[in-house]
């Protein structure tokens, strides 16, 4: 269900300044800001993940100002060729090339945008991806697009969005990082732990 919200010109200009070209909408900018505040609030009430389910990665994210992982967190690191089950995770932070993203489907959209710039056409993008992609702008049945993009992609559950995004990133040499926390649920792969997946393009 959508809601109409009026904002001032001043606030709109601030949203524009925070927006990522070709990817963000006013809704996604506001949602990212709200998610970061909620994640910060949640982390304030949590202790570090259990040591037996996570390995420390001191060089992975703590120096990156875009990271939402706390310095005392033990981080489980994963290769993009061996992805964990990311069902029941809260997305903390992500970067695709130089674009910050705020959830698994936003990450997938940003990766597809980068691939589109490399392959040059929507048809070539559709051949490269297993995601459901339509030419043009569509917002029904879970489809989303980004500003200036000539295609729309249908949202998917976390594991599928993650898998497609990191496969495309490997195949097309796109730098992608995702940080997330498993929720404290019995069905989560590593309840309470923090995970990180990074795809680094090979140097030619």
Explain this structure.
The structure is a single chain. The protein has 204 residues and is of the alpha+beta class. It has one domain (9-199). Helices cover 33% and strands 18% of the residues. It has five helices and eight strands. A five-stranded mixed sheet has the order 1-8-7-2-3. Strands 4-6-5 form a three-stranded antiparallel sheet, with helices on one face. Strand 5 (143-144) and strand 6 form a beta hairpin. Helix 3 runs parallel beside helix 5. The longest helix has 19 residues, at 26-44.
Write the topology of this structure.
Blueprint: H1 9-18, H2 26-44, E1 75-78, E2 89-96, E3 99-101, H3 104-119, H4 122-128, E4 133-135, E5 143-144, E6 151-154, H5 158-172, E7 176-182, E8 194-199
Helix pairs in contact: 3-5
Name the features:
three-stranded antiparallel sheet, five-stranded mixed sheet, 18% strand, globular, 204 residues, 33% helix, alpha+beta
pLDDT < 50 stretches: 42-66
Helix content: 25-40%
Q: What is the number of independent domains?
A: 1
Largest sheet, strands/sense/barrel: 5 strands, mixed
* Distance N to C terminus: 47 Å
What is the H/E string? HHEEEHHEEEHEE
Shape: globular
* Rg measurement, Å: 17 Å
The DSSP helix count reads 5
Q: What percentage of the residues does DSSP assign to strands (E)?
A: 15-25%
Mean pLDDT: 82
Please tally the β strands and state the result.
8
> What is the SS-derived class?
alpha+beta
**Which strand order spans the largest sheet, edge to edge or round the barrel?**
1-8-7-2-3
Oligomer: single chain
């Amino acid at each position: 269900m959508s809601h109409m919200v009026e904002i001032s010109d001043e606030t709109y200009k601030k949203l524009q300044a925070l927006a990522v070209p070709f990817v963000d909408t006013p809704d996604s900018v506001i949602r990212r800001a709200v998610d970061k505040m909620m994640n910060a609030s949640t982390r304030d009430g949590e202790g570090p993940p259990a040591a037996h389910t996570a390995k420390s990665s001191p060089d992975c994210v703590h120096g990156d100002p875009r990271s939402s992982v706390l310095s005392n967190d033990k981080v489980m690191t994963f290769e993009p060729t061996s992805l964990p089950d990311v069902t029941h995770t809260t997305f903390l932070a992500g970067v695709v090339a130089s674009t910050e993203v705020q959830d698994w489907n936003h990450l997938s959209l940003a990766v597809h945008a980068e691939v589109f710039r490399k392959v040059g056409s929507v048809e070539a993008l559709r051949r490269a991806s297993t995601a459901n992609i339509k030419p043009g702008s569509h917002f029904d049945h879970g489809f989303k697009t980004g500003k200036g993009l000539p295609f729309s992609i249908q949202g998917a559950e976390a594991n599928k969005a993650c898998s497609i995004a990191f496969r495309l990133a490997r195949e097309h040499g796109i730098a992608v990082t995702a940080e997330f926390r498993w929720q404290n649920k019995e069905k989560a792969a590593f309840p309470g732990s923090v995970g990180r997946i990074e795809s680094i393009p090979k140097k030619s």
